[in-house]
Protein 1
Amino acid sequence: MGLQEKRAVKAFQDDSYKKLTNEINTLAGYPIEFDVNWDTLAVEDRADLYEEGFTKVYFTPLINALKEIAADDMGKEALKDALKKVVIKNEGGHTYPPSAYSFKSGVLTIDHMPFGNIDDITERSTVLGELLMKNL
């Protein structure tokens, strides 16, 4: 990761990441642990797309799924009992939601390329919501 990528990651961490994780934790009603492998997200020569890509690929779909799940107390309680941690990484080269998400032992893993199908938020939100609901 070069200096340009490091700066872009730091800018995202300092501004959007905090806001997005706060929104997620507020929706869930409890603090969810996040483990983000920034080095794998920081694709070289794409620093100009980090803000949009990270937000649309990793966080907005999770926010959308949680809005549906946590719409009532039953959903919030089920979520709290089941989801303990979210791991975000880009190791498998996945660009389609069915292969990018997994849930095991309280850990939701999002392994998706940060710039693959960037605007396909609806499909990611739907697949992620279905996966979580199945495991709650």
Protein 2
Amino acid sequence: MSDFRPLSAQFSVAPQIGIEDIADAKAQGFALIVNNRPDGEAPAAPQGDHIAGACAAEGLAYAAIPIGQAGFSHAQIDALDKLLAAATGPILAYCRSGTRSTHLWALARARAGEDVDGIVAAAAKAGYDLTGLRPMLDALAGEK
């Protein structure tokens, strides 16, 4: 059963998805799947090319913005910003637990000038705690 958790009307996150989740994502109206998990991180999990192929078969767009142990960079936030700007429908992002996907979304939204309290509340409602990320969110929001 799919575990898609909305952060906004246009962006949801999930723990690692399987090939069988792609049809469910399509049925729920997602237009794009974003993989935030580096290939090889968990060899038993479906790798990016398998998810990309399943997305293509269902008529869904696919993009990869891997986030490894090095953490987050402005380049990754820029990549998500471009996907958000070009989106033709709702986006589903996934990683091992959904946390990295949530953090990337939160950083992008804070940098875009969205209300940090609202970002934190949306993440909490989806089951993700942004307490440790709050200083970075505030700093990015302050750049606007």
Protein 3
Amino acid sequence: MSDCIFCKIIAGEIPSRKIYEDERCYAFHDIDPKAPVHFLVIPKEHITGANRITEENAPLVGHIFAVIAKVAAELGAGDDYRVVTNCGPKAGQTVGHLHFHVLAGRDMTWPPG
């Protein structure tokens, strides 16, 4: 998608601090971190949000969660981290491309926001 900031990051048109990349997804540090460890994992396929996950693309989401566990461990988060995805503008989604925030390195309060 030509106007999607995450598609531009994947294409290398916008710089990012890459952590991980494979043929299906891309992980990078958040530019405005909310925790000592804060990174995003995005699919390379343009899916607008969690409300567009289907039976057909669900295996991609499973792969992303495996990548989240691997990268979180590599960054020292161990088994203590939060994974967040917002669905729609009223829920705080500001980029119309499915993405998962991973936060760790501090106590997470509940409820969030």
Protein 4
Amino acid sequence: MNYQNYMKIEFLSKSQNESFARVVVASFVAQLDPTIEELADIKTAVSEAVTNAIIHGYDSSTEKVVIECKIKGNTIEIVVEDFGNGIDDIELARQPLYTSKPELERSGMGFTVMETFMDEVSIESQKGKGTKINMIKTIKVVENEE
């Protein structure tokens, strides 16, 4: 255990829980004293990951989504995991504007948004077993001016 703080939550894959996930992660990361912009970036990335789990992972059926957060120094690591469909081709799924659900008018920008707002994003997925998205962001330390 080489982290300073840790939390794990589990919730049902219902679209109304996406905002719950954002708030929980934002509350946890607040201890690092992020800027408003850093906090907004993290909340947006979490929203995208949770939405992907609900819509693509489970085809909107009600299952569980798990979020784990670890703080190491001034870095937050966020893992969003589902146990659903999995991704056929991760590299294709990462391409801007690609969506496996065009009938739902999805923008296909989920992974692009996560990669834009976080320092690192990695994806593990197995067909029929689920997807795990690992996101890392280092919060800039602001020196006090006196």
